[in-house]
Structure formats: C-alpha cells, structure tokens
Design a protein that fits this description.
Elements (H helix, E strand, L loop, with lengths): L2 E2 L9 E2 L7 E4 L2 E5 L2 E4 L4 E4 L16 E2 L11 E7 L3 E9 L4 E9 L3 E7 L12 E9 L2 E9 L2
Antiparallel strand pairs: 1-2, 3-6, 4-5, 7-8, 8-11, 9-10, 9-12, 12-13
C-alpha cells in the first residue's frame, strides 16, 4: 500500500491501493470512497477488519432512464431507471404509430435503481410483432423516452 500526502499538512491524504479486509479511519474523518481516503489533519490507522464506505452510493443523485438491455431483444428485455427520491413511476411502451402497447405503474417509497422486465406482450396478453418501440418514463417532474428493437 502506498500513502500519498501527509495528513498533518493541508490537502488530501490519498491511499492508492487498499488491500482487501482493510479498515481506514482518521481522527477527523471526512470520507472514504472507493480506493481513496480524504482526511483533514489527523492520524490514519489501518487495521485488519472489513472495509467500509461512509456514503450510501446506492441512491442516485438524479433521475435517469437507462437504455433497455438486451437491445435488440427477443422475447424479453429489462428497462432500468434511477430515482433520487420516493416517486410514483409510470412506464409506457408505444408502437411507432403512437399506440399504447404496455404500461407499468410503480410506487417507490425510496430512491434507488429500479428495473422493469417486459416480456414482449401487449396489454391484451399477446406477443407483439417485431419492430421498434418507444418506452417512456414519467416520474414526478421527470420525463424521458428511448427506443428499443424487438427482433423475432
């Protein structure tokens, strides 16, 4: 392990590689993120315990609609989206002619990354034909659409 910087000096202390099962602390703890630790003046102690991260990185900071995967797909695909806070979500799938093909509604009590799996079936329960479809996410003030391709 290499330590870059001096915690007694102003500026960050950086540890470029942290071995597995290593716990990093400082007397004036600021943050631990990934393989780097930043601290104000203080002592860095390395002991053989489990590594931790002070930030909950599982909650996104902004809304995002991600490209479905796989794409193209047959017979099913996953559509992921990020919510920074609790939201009611409506995900609609449209044909290129603007017809509503499928709709999913979710009420998420917390933020996070979520996923909807579409099995390529319409509101009537029947398989839809090959082609390009638009998926549209509406969550509070956020709205975005992307394209996906079903190939049979």
């Amino acid at each position: 392990m290499q330590i870059i910087g001096d915690p007694a000096q102003s500026g960050p202390l950086s540890i470029d590689t942290v071995p597995a099962h290593t716990y990093l602390t400082t007397s004036n703890y600021e943050e631990i993120s990934g393989e780097e630790i930043s601290a104000e003046a203080g002592e860095v102690v390395v002991s053989n315990t489990t590594a931790i991260n002070s930030e909950d990185t599982t909650v996104p900071v902004e809304f995002a609609l991600l490209q479905n995967f796989p794409n193209p797909f047959n017979p099913q695909t996953s559509i992921q989206y990020d919510l920074p806070h609790a939201s009611k979500v409506t995900l609609r799938i449209y044909s290129l002619q603007g017809q509503l093909v499928q709709q999913f509604e979710r009420d998420h009590p917390t933020g996070g990354r979520f996923s909807v799996r579409w099995n390529g079936r319409g509101l009537n329960g029947k398989s839809v034909s090959s082609g390009t479809y638009i998926f549209h996410l509406q969550a509070n003030e956020y709205s975005q659409s992307l394209k996906m391709l079903l190939v049979k």
